[in-house]
Specification:
- The protein is an all-alpha fold.
- It folds into two domains: about 45 residues; about 230 residues, MetI-like (MetI-like fold, Orthogonal Bundle), CATH 1.10.3720.
- The protein is built from 13 helices and two strands.
- It has a two-stranded antiparallel ribbon with strand order 1-2.
- A hairpin with a 5-residue loop joins strand 1 and strand 2.
- Helix 3 packs antiparallel against helix 10, helix 5 runs parallel beside helix 11 and helix 10 runs antiparallel to helix 13.
- The chain is flat.
- It is found in: Cell membrane.
- This is Permease component of ABC-type sugar transporter.
- Its main location: membrane.
């Protein structure tokens, strides 16, 4: 009996110690994740008056009903979906190509890593301003296209190319980050698998297709999931490119930029929170689809 009491007391002490160690993480998650989510849901169900004293008027699903009838919401969703479709596959493929190249034993690979990674550590606002100079009608890109006898564009003012211009910039600046993730995974692949495949007569492409890609499947899921979340949150580049308007002709209007306009320009905090909830649901659905497609287990 005495031994059982001691074991029970020991279990209580261990459980208490475990909860104490978890407390900092739980406080951070509760403060910066759970509480904001709950507050956003609360705001989405209310009409919030900010001028003349803060006031909350419960309207139920009124904000959600309004956003489904708002043409600009659908434009922003369409632009964001197109942007995600352009950036995520391209940055993932480019990151994989760069990682495989650097993992192949080329000379000076440490210097190449530093060179490739520089855009990732550069301020997003600075990169956007640099690309605005490049995309200017008299900028470097049009000069290059003109020299190659190719058509030039008004990259900042033409609705047909404004969003692809932002996508091109982000593919170039974000792929190196995912390259590092792929590179770490590639260096963890057992060399015995390649040696055995080589003895069986497999060439480099077959080794890559049947060994490297299957092993990298969970890493690819992680890269695409993080890339999808990041691209759905496009704001600063679109804001700087368009001056906060989402122009030209709403071509660069994204969901997060629309949330900003609703909250800080139109003072519709409840409506902005409803759009944020819609965005969160879209991100969760896409992430689950990617999880089903790529899975999380090595095959």
């Amino acid at each position: 009996m005495k031994i059982q009491r001691q074991k029970a007391r020991s279990n209580v002490v261990e459980n208490l110690a475990g909860y104490l160690f978890m407390m900092p993480a739980m406080l951070v998650i509760g403060t910066f994740v759970i509480l904001p989510i709950g507050w956003a849901i609360f705001l989405s169900l209310h009409k919030v008056r900010l001028l003349g004293g803060i006031d909350f008027q419960f309207i139920g699903l009124g904000n959600f009903s309004q956003l489904f009838d708002d043409e600009r919401v659908w434009i922003a969703l369409k632009n964001t979906a197109i942007y995600v479709a352009m950036v995520v596959p391209a940055q993932t493929l480019l990151a994989l190509i760069l990682a495989v190249t650097l993992n192949s034993g080329i000379r000076g690979k440490n210097w190449w890593r530093i060179l490739y990674f520089l855009p990732t550590v550069t301020s997003s606002a600075v990169l956007t301003l640099i690309f605005m100079w490049i995309y200017n009608t008299n900028g470097l890109l049009n000069d290059l296209l003109n020299w190659l006898k190719l058509p030039t564009y008004n990259w900042l003012g033409d609705p047909a190319v404004a969003l692809p211009g932002i996508a091109l910039m982000n593919i170039w600046s974000t792929a190196p980050f995912y390259m590092v993730i792929y590179l770490a995974a590639l260096q963890d692949v057992p060399q015995l698998l390649y040696e055995a495949a080589e003895l069986d007569g497999a060439n480099s492409w077959q080794q890559f297709r049947y060994i490297t890609l299957p092993i990298l499947k969970p890493v690819t899921f992680f890269v695409m999931a993080i890339g999808t979340i990041g691209t759905f949150q496009l704001f600063d580049q679109s804001y700087i490119f368009s001056g906060g308007t989402g122009g030209p002709n709403n071509a660069t209007l994204t969901v997060v930029l629309l949330i900003y306009q609703s909250v800080f320009r139109n003072l519709q905090m409840g409506y902005g929170a409803a759009i944020a909830c819609l965005l969160s649901v879209a991100i969760v659905i896409l992430t689950l689809m990617q999880r089903r497609l790529f899975g999380g287990e090595r095959t």
